[in-house]
Amino acid sequence: MTLSGDERVWLGWKAINKVQTGEVSTFRMQKGDTLILDFGFNIVGYLQGVSNGKAKLQIEPAEVLAELGDSWEKFPADFGNGNKPGRSWSPKVLNIQNNWRFGERMTFRYVRLIVLEGASEIVLSELSCDEVSAVPFSKIKPLEGFGPKMKQIDLVAQYTLRNCIQEVFEDGPKRDQRLWLGDLKLEALPDGLLFKSDSVIKRCILLFAGTQRDDGFIASCVFNTSKGQNPEIGDEMIPDYAMLFGSVLLNYATNTNDWDLVKTIYPLACRQVDNVCSMWLNADNYLQIPDNIWMFIDWSKNLDRQTAEQATAIYSIKSLLEIARKLELKEDIEKWENLGKKMEASAMKHLYDSEKGLFISGKQRQVSYASQIWMILAGVVDANAGAEILKRVKADIASVQPGCPYLVHHLVQAYLLCNMDKEAYQLIDNYWGGMIDKGADTFWEIYDPGDAYKSPYDSHLFNSYCHAWSCTPGWFLRHPEYGKRLLEIERTNNQQ
Ligand code: RAM
Predict the structure, then answer these.
(1) Among 176, 223, 305, which residue has the most ligand 1 atoms within 8 Å of its CB, making it the best to mutate?
(2) What's the mean pLDDT in 191-206?
(3) How far, in Å, is the centroid of ligand 1 from the Cα of 468?
């Protein structure tokens, strides 16, 4: 196939001159020739094939056509802190002969092959991908009950998660290939209902436990090096990710009953919240984390994150409290109950604007979805109050909107906690369904229906198009309680 620029399509490129081929196809090429293959869906693995003799190939994997159509020079990634990362996964050069296999794991739907050197006629055949994941295809199961659209959303979510579960739970199998704490938290939810990769999750928990720094914090990400070396510890420490470690433990223990592991790791999870509070909780019991600390919460540039951090702390304290109750740790139960109460009361006193009926954040008293969502998830307000808050934040056109699927997931959950099932259903339908309408065969790291080129890295070419934190519709739709309620909404919609 070849590519053609078309402004009307999402990300500006479409495939033309497509020829239906399979593994049996043979391609006759010469030096300088280009071949673009479409594998039909996002795939992780090792490219292999057969050639009639020696040749040198340039290999360019791509999750979306724009990666082949747009140039890196025109759209270089930029982290905004002076750091401009390279486009490490593309292109590669490979000397091939007879039966060949490219030894680097790649993630792609499309591959462009360019013959750089070779005899007058290079015959390529049996081109395929030796596909890898810790989850066998047989574990992918169709969703019962729902109509075709939700079934499709669920299926794409399952493929997304499956591609991300390799030796560890990766955030995205193309770019980062890292185990990030926030991503693990979300991936573990549908995994618990679908694939049950408990041993991989245990491995991830142990890896994080092994990253503890001198100051007691664990790192927010670990790079898995598959070449027998020790995993590398990321430099980043994100307070909201670190504090959520306890909730990852709780979810693991609830799914596996492996309270022994949780008992061993629990002190480390406590240390994360203890650290944050001892360093940044002020005399009025609300957090003031300095700006030079990377708070994540969402990929939204202008978001003030202080209030969402306070809520994440309260949420995390409740997870630790639940573990302490299970382990019958009397002193800890008391400690977490007291701290949680103090921080909740402080949130209502200092971070809630009763005139607006909304949580505000920072000196500018910023109103954002993130602050409301996390306060609701933390249980600082009850379902009725939460529902009113979510309606008000929607009506406030100046409020800072969610910037990526990580926060949109938490918004769906907040709707469900506040019994706003219709809104939850609609959001899954429009947001994840919207990605499918734009051609997604796995869900993306970033999706803004109004801006195809949105990227926290300033380049759509650097975005990941199979991303862990986007895989959660499979959890909502299959959740024993939420799933039923969402199905009820679908049935009512169908009757109208
Ligand atoms: C990026 C990835 C990852 C996320 C971190 C905070 O590198 O998108 O998923 O967890 O940022």
Answers:
(1) 176
(2) 98
(3) 9
Tallying the residues shown for the chain, one arrives at: 496
Highest CATH level, class, for 2-131 = mainly beta
Instruction: Label residues 461-471 b or e (16+ Cβ within 10 Å = b).
Output: bbbbbbbbbbb
CA–CA gap between residue 359 and residue 352 (Å, rounded): 4
pLDDT at 213: 94
Q: CA–CA separation, 202 vs 277, rounded Å?
A: 27
Q: State the burial class of residue 262 (Cβ atoms within 10 Å of its Cβ: 0-12, 13-18, 19+).
A: buried
d(CA 298, CA 223): 21
CA distances from 488 to 431, 481, 492 (A): 20, 11, 6
Which residue is it, tokens 């600390």?
A: 293
Report d(CA 483, CA 230) in Å as an integer.
41
pLDDT tens for residues 357-410?
Answer: 999 999 999 999 999 999 999 999 999 999 999 999 999 999 999 999 999 999
- Helices 181-193, 405-417: axis angle to 10 degrees equals 50
Asked if 161 contacts 190 with a C-beta cutoff of 8 angstroms, the reply is yes
Residue 208 is encoded by which pair of tokens?
């994080």
Ligand 1: centre distance to CA 408 (Å): 15
- Angle, helices 369-377 vs 306-326, to 10°: value is 10
Distance between CA atoms of 376 and 415, rounded to whole angstroms? 9
Kind of pairing between the strands at 221-223 and 2-5 = unpaired
Q: Is the pLDDT of residue 227 over 70?
A: no
Backbone angles phi, psi at 205, to 5 degrees: -60, -45
Pocket test for ligand 1, best of 221, 295, 472 (most atoms within 8 A of CB): 221
State both tokens at 456.
């926290």
- Helix boundaries (H) for 60-128: 66-69
Closest CA to 95 of 74, 70, 122: 122
Question: pLDDT-based confidence at 19, cuts 50/70/90?
Answer: confident
For residues 337 and 90, what is the distance between their CA atoms, to the nearest angstrom? 51
- Judge contact between 41 and 441, C-beta under 8 A: yes
Kindly report, residue by residue over 141-151, the tens digit of the pLDDT: 999 999 999 99
For 439-461, the pLDDT digits (tens) are 999 999 999 999 999 999 999 99
Residue 467 alpha carbon, nearest atom of ligand 1: 9
Work out the pLDDT band at 216, boundaries 50, 70, 90: very high
From 25, 174, 179, 187, select the one nearest 106 (Cα to Cα).
174
169 Cβ closer than 6 Å to some ligand 1 atom: no
CA contacts within 13 A on the Cβ side of 145? 13
CA neighbor of 447 nearest in space, from 4, 3, 9, 10:
10
pLDDT, mean over the chain: 95
The pLDDT of residue 88 = 64
